Amino acid sequence: MTFLKTLKATLLLGILGVVIVAVTTFTGMATLEVNNTVIEMPFSYLIVGLIGCFLVLLISTSVWKFLWAIPEKYQQFLSKKRSQKALNLIIEGLTALSARQPAEALELAEQALALDPKNPIMLVVNAFAAQQANQHDKALTSFNQMMKETRLKFLATLGLIDIEKQNNKILKVQSLLKKALQLRHDSSWVINEILDNNIKCMLAGHVINIKDQKYSKLIDKKQWAHHVALYHAFAAQKAMELNNIVDTKTNLKKAIAEQENFTWVTINLAKIYRDEKSNNKAYKLINKSLSKTPHPDILSLLAETTPCKTPTETYHHFCGDVLTKDNHDSCLFLSKLAANAQLWGESKKWAERALEKRPTPRGVQLLKTACTALHIAIDANILYPALKQDTAWHCIKCKTPHKDWQIQCRNCEGIDSIQY
Question: CA-CA distance, 88 to 80, in Å (whole number)?
């Protein structure tokens, strides 16, 4: 493009020179003295000579610039070709990563990085490929290089977090998670990871000051309240193992203050109130957190702490609007209350309703007891050949049943995954 512009300028100057020659031919002569000899020549010759020299210089410069640019353009061509090849390699590497072939992905990423070392994409893929291939030294080197670039810091921090997780360095993970949160304070994934890692720190015996957690303002209030409740519930469970009733009660109260519908906390705090002969407190606590799917222990405590004086009065009280009648455990509860009041027809009715919803050994036992009292012959094995387990605590991730609530599943190590 520059050469064409120079050629156009040369043509214009040539036309101007012709015009000048035509004018000066008729305007006079120039006198030159060479070796004591006076030579007369038209002005046009002098001007044409100067213009010619100028044109030769201009064309020479333009040609030189054009020739000088050839190596640079060739280098640009080679660089573009290398970048394209590196891009193709990195696409193949990402495909290998997706196919769970980290060794092949790492090899391709290293080739791409050698071709285009300044491209940050090559560095990122190389780092994560090395991480997936369990070559932590290479991955750490790449992640540390990424940390030098502001736009890659968050990605590098996430990579370092995964490496430290594999090494079970939970305190280091916590430190890196806080750095990641500073870089992207709107990342809900980072916040959830921090909350889960807090619990892992507690399980490992590290002290966590829940009041100093500045990120509590960045998340939903209910989510934070649940996390604080988990913290106090775990402390209460530890105190129960040591038979420290005072600390157990204190932490259970703190947990229930954060989250009223925490079933395990409600059950254990109500048991403490019952043992202290504070039935009114226990009854109010249970009634406040009574859900549509109540735990059997909740129902038993409800019956134990009720202000009703006789079994018959208790049964009729709970037959009202206190409980949802569509729940399996509620039907079993009413069947048992009817049996205590020797209302065998009612007991049989509720047992059959419970078995319709979920055939379990408890339901069959209540039905047999009621039928025996009513002198009704029944073969439960024929009516209910395939019994299911009685409802219990279970992990929502791996479906493993648990006898009691725990903050972490013993099978899949899921945090806060055990529910009723």
Answer: 12
